[in-house]
Amino acid sequence: SQTIHQWPATLVQPVGSPLSLECTVEGTSNPNLYWYRQAAGRGLQLLFYSVGIGQISSEVPQNLSASRPQDRQFILSSKKLLLSDSGFYLCACLRWADRPTEGYTFGSGTRLTVV
Amino acid sequence: SQQGEEDPQALSIQEGENATMNCSYKTSINNLQWYRQNSGRGLVHLILIRSNEREKHSGRLRVTLDTSKKSSSLLITASRAADTASYFCATDALSNYQLIWGAGTKLIIKP
Fold first, then answer.
1. How far apart are alpha carbons B80 and B16 in whole angstroms?
2. Using CA atoms, how far apart are residues A61 and A41, in angstroms rounded to an integer?
3. How far apart are CA B103 and CA A29, in angstroms?
């Protein structure tokens, strides 16, 4: 089964600073990868997904971008953080072939506070 | 966009009691999934039920699906303090690349 490593666990950044969150996957190859954001006490909002190296789809136009430089690496970035970028960021993966019968695997999340 | 809606938004029960959470959705689906999230942690997949299934069990979990009513329920029997968490339903229509998530039910088990 796959495992997702996501770091850092918590991050406090000033407004206007850059951001880089990294997610790596073990135990599978060619997974679909996802970045979600969760506001306090709320459900998940899909930010980006990727079906392969260099392939990124954005669900919500915003201050963030994503990249997939390697098959099992997914990076969330920003050039200049806004206060509204604060939240809990989660990386998830799923092998496309498993989709009809298997659930997503999530990382442990990064709590980002922009001050 | 959010399609699933869980109710209740919050539920507090005594340890040992059964907990029932409901989820409604709006469009046709291929499967419906339930996840648990402990405070400040990632989500853990609990159970997936396909659209041609009506009931599924996993340990103390029982999930039902009524596609005619576009609704599902998650029953946790003999609740334990460790079941305290938020529970989310998510639907997969297979027509695009994403799950559609509800806002979750916050479950508190009182010792």
1. 6
2. 22
3. 31
Percent of chain B with pLDDT strictly greater than 70? 93
Tokens, residue B43: 């989500």
Cα–Cα distance, A10 to B67 (Å, whole number)? 40
Q: Read out DSSP for A11-64?
A: EEE-TT--EEEEEEEES-SS-EEEEEEE-TT--EEEEEEEEETTEEEESS-SS-
Q: What is the pLDDT of residues B6-30, one digit of tens each?
A: 888 999 999 999 999 999 999 889 9
A107 touches chain B (CB under 8 A): yes
A50-82 residue pLDDT tens: 999 999 998 886 789 999 999 999 999 999 999
A63 is written with which tokens? 């201050």
| Side-chain half-sphere CA neighbours of B8 within 13 A | 9
Instruction: Report the alpha-carbon distance of residue B77 to residue B95 in Å, rounded.
Output: 34
Task: Choose the closest CB to B48 out of A90, A103, A108.
Answer: A103
Enter the DSSP assignment of A21.
Answer: E
Query: Cis before residue A8, ω within 30 degrees of 0?
Result: yes
Which tokens go with B16? 């040992």
From chain A, pick out residues whose CB is under 8 angstroms from the CB of B45.
Answer: 102-106
